[in-house]
Design a protein that fits this description.
The complex is a heterodimer.
Chain A (H helix, E strand, L loop, with lengths): L1 H20 L4 E6 L4 H16 L3 E6 L6 H12 L6 E3 L4 H7 L7 H7 L1 H4 L2 H7 E2 L2 E2 L1 E3 L1 E4 L2 E4 L1 H7 L7 H13 L3 E3 L5 H25 L4 H4 L2 H14 L11 H9 L3 E5 L4 H7 L9 E4 L7 E4 L2 E4 L7 H12 L1 H11 L2 E2 L11 H16 L2 E3 L9 H15 L5 H15 L2
Parallel strand pairs in A: 1-2, 1-3, 9-10, 12-15
Antiparallel strand pairs in A: 3-13, 4-5, 6-13, 7-12, 7-14, 8-10, 8-11
Chain B lengths: L1 H51 L16 H8 L1 H32 L6 H9 L6 H12 L5 H7 L16 H26 L3 H9 L4 H12 L1 H17 L2 H6 L11 H11 L3 H32 L1
Helix pairs in contact in B: 1-13, 2-13, 3-7, 3-10, 4-7, 5-7, 7-10, 8-9, 10-13, 12-13
The chains are: A alpha/beta, B mainly alpha.
């Protein structure tokens, strides 16, 4: 009888214990934000989540582009032990959705009205088969041009807004003995410049046809040939040591006044800020020539894996916290991007961020908000890789522009499944 | 006497032969775990990889048979042929130069020079570095704006140019330079050991016959180093095929993909681009290339040994 009493008491205690712990779950997060500003931002998310009573288990895998993180994630999913959330972006979200391992975030999305807070283009990236499976953290703009006005003054050139003006200005800078364009000769940087050229040469519709719909006629068109020719002309304004150079070393060339311009996304702003430079005075941020009013986006996001019911509260809290204004503001101030959430207060952000935010909203309305090909937002990794190969091979050899366009069309078709 | 012997052997016979059995099979027992592990983790996974190369695997492995589409895709891929050509160039030059340089250094060191221990250590030291360190250091040395070219130009030779690192045609040869620098010391050590093992009496006999030193080396000593050539070749081949980290650190695949090798190709396609099937096909091709060279060589060398 006493035994039965003890057993019942034990059972009750255990039930209460388990019952109470289901409200405080553990969230294991796999990400690759390990450098200074990024790590601070992740720490902020951890703090906010823990303030809600959940625990954060960090799984940081260093490696800027997230390649190592993706490999670790694949091995964990194969082992049947996925983390709660992982930092995955773009069409990879669709690839993971195909594997049937993601949890639906529709309940959180409806409660917090995500459909109203995100532009349609962005929300579509976060959805698989109509259900929300990912939550966006920030919005990077890729089609920026970073300019050192002092270099332009020295050369007597005007900052260009079209590609024709660009060639005039670049000639003047070259004549003054300085480097017109700071560039790092790596495949992704070649592709970043190329996609801005394509956007300027063909417009947003053409860009979408070529890089989102992967239409062969668009890929092997005269517009594409013209874009390749412009790319080659840009190359003549870079210096000889460009191959293999990292992007931040190219940015420092602009900071130090050795070069006049760099075509890079808004993460370059962090370099200027870290060097103590002020926008409008020491550097200018402008849309790449010919892409004013267009916005090439690169959105970091987290996907959330299916798990047991006990930790569903923690999962939903994680997703909800990311979309909240507090986190969005702190994270993006630290990282140099703009919040994914619309209509945020903007007093803490600088002028370049304001420009970004305005263009984000206006381009969504006008249909000039396009996903970045070079940063894995418009196509699968295999297709993006095929485009990289053609662009970087063209950049580093004397292949003709017409041959490059042909190779682009055939390479893209070969890499699609 | 015989009765005692019989008594001893009858019950003891079984125990002794059990002990004998243990003794005879002890080596096999000790080697068995390693053998099983090798069988599963090396040959088993080679088979798994081969299977994957016949599937449509993309980001995660799928095991449904899909025929030879991955191989067709592979052979249609420009970048693969660049990588294969680079491996032939790099592998060939690396092995030949390492063997020649290693042998030369070993012969020179064998002449009983004074500071032989110190010199040997200096030449052997690069082997202790990881390929990443070698690649990074040589990247700085060969960088036109920072390294050798700038140094010589600062010394006064304005028109000196050594920009192989950024030249798509020549980038693969810089990988050869860095690789040879790293591995030739090791080959030298192998050959030195082999040279020291050569029988003195043969050399003395040749000298008595009036043979000159170069002739002695060419006719007698080098042929007797055949086993060392064999070992050095195996080791160098595996380093050459495996040279993923050297290429990544030194050129990152070269301007564009001009210095890509099958190892970096496989990594890029299988892991970065989520085309596991294609990556598996490329690594099976790497295996086939290595097997095509090593297996006949192995066969001829070991068969020769059995004959003797």
């Amino acid at each position: 009888m006493i035994g039965k009493f003890i057993r019942t008491a034990l059972g009750m205690v255990l039930a209460i214990g388990i019952g109470s712990s289901s409200f405080a779950g553990e969230v294991e997060v796999l990400h690759y934000w390990t450098s200074g500003g990024e790590a601070r931002s992740v720490a902020e998310l951890k703090r906010l989540l823990e303030a809600r009573g959940h625990t954060w288990k960090d799984m940081a895998v260093a490696g800027g582009g997230g390649e190592s993180a993706a490999t670790v994630l694949k091995s964990r999913v194969l082992a049947g032990n996925p983390p709660t959330a992982a930092q995955i972006k773009g069409p990879s979200i669709q690839e993971w959705g195909d594997e049937d391992v993601l949890a639906s975030l529709n309940s959180v999305a409806e409660k917090n009205k995500w459909d109203d807070l995100l532009p349609r283009v962005v929300a579509d990236v976060m959805k698989y088969d109509g259900d929300y499976v990912a939550v966006p953290v920030n919005v990077h703009r890729v089609n920026w041009m970073w300019v050192n006005p002092a270099v332009f003054e020295k050369a007597g050139a005007t900052i260009p807004t079209t590609w024709d003006e660009f060639f005039v200005a670049a000639d003047k800078i070259k004549a003054a003995g300085l480097i017109p364009v700071a560039h790092g000769g790596q495949a992704w940087q070649d592709a970043t410049v190329f996609e801005s050229v394509v956007l300027a040469t063909g417009g947003a519709e053409f860009y979408r046809k070529a890089f989102v719909n992967l239409d062969s006629a668009a890929l092997n068109s005269d517009t594409m040939v013209k874009s390749f020719e412009t790319l080659r002309k840009i190359k003549s304004y870079t210096d000889k040591d460009a191959p293999g150079r990292d992007w931040n070393l190219a940015t420092s060339m602009v900071i130090n006044g050795k070069a006049g311009m760099q075509f890079m996304g808004d993460w370059a702003k962090g370099e200027f800020t870290a060097a103590g430079k002020a926008p409008g005075k020491d550097y200018e941020c402008l849309p790449a020539p010919g892409t004013a009013g267009a916005f090439t986006f690169n959105i970091d996001s987290f996907i959330i894996f299916e798990g047991d019911d006990e930790s569903s509260e923690a999962r939903e809290a994680f997703a909800a916290t990311i979309m909240e204004p507090e986190f969005q503001e702190v994270f993006n101030l630290n990282k140099g991007s703009i919040p994914a959430r619309l209509n945020m207060p903007r007093d803490k952000f600088d002028s370049c961020a304001h420009d970004s935010m305005d263009t984000f909203v206006s381009s969504a309305k006008e249909g000039t908000l396009v996903p970045s090909m070079a940063h894995g937002m418009s196509t699968y990794g295999s297709v993006q890789g095929a485009i990289y190969d053609v662009v970087t091979e063209f950049y580093n050899s004397d292949t003709s522009a017409t041959d490059a366009a042909k190779k682009l069309a055939s390479g893209v078709q070969a890499s699609r499944y | 006497m015989s009765r005692v012997t019989q008594n001893k052997t009858e019950p003891g016979n079984r125990r002794r032969s059990f002990g004998d059995f243990i003794e005879a099979s002890l080596p096999k027992l000790v080697v068995a775990p390693t053998f099983v592990i090798t069988l599963i983790f090396i040959y088993g996974y080679i088979f798994l990889n081969g299977w994957l190369s016949f599937t449509k695997s993309r980001m995660l492995p799928k095991y449904k048979w899909a025929g030879t589409i991955q191989y067709e895709r592979l052979f249609d891929n420009d970048r693969w042929w660049v990588a294969a050509k680079n491996l032939a160039i790099f592998g060939g030059l690396f092995i030949v130069i390492c063997l020649a340089l290693g042998l030369l250094l070993a012969i020179l060191l064998d002449q009983r020079v004074r500071a032989e221990g110190a010199i040997r250590t200096i030449y052997l030291y690069p082997m202790a570095l990881s390929f990443i360190v070698t690649g990074t250091a040589w990247k700085w040395i060969l960088n036109p704006g920072l390294g050798l070219e700038k140094l010589v130009r600062d010394l006064g030779f304005e028109s000196f140019s050594f920009d192989w690192l950024v030249d798509p045609e020549m980038a693969i040869y810089t990988v050869v330079i860095a690789g040879v620098w790293q591995a030739s010391g090791f080959v030298m050590a192998l050959f030195l050991a082999g040279l020291r093992g050569v029988d003195d009496s043969i050399i003395k006999a040749a000298q008595v016959d009036g043979a000159s030193l170069p002739k002695i080396y060419w006719r007698i000593i080098i042929p007797s180093l055949r086993p060392v050539f064999f070992s050095a070749l195996i080791i160098l081949t595996h380093i050459a095929i495996k040279s993923f980290d050297l290429v990544i650190a030194l050129t990152g695949g070269g301007p564009g993909y001009a210095s890509d090798v099958p190892a970096t190709f496989m990594y890029t396609f299988a892991f970065t681009r989520g085309q596991v099937g294609l990556g598996a096909a490329s690594s099976m091709m790497m295996l086939a290339a290595v097997a095509a060279i090593i297996v006949p060589y192995l066969y001829s060398e070991l068969r020769g040994k059995n004959h003797d």
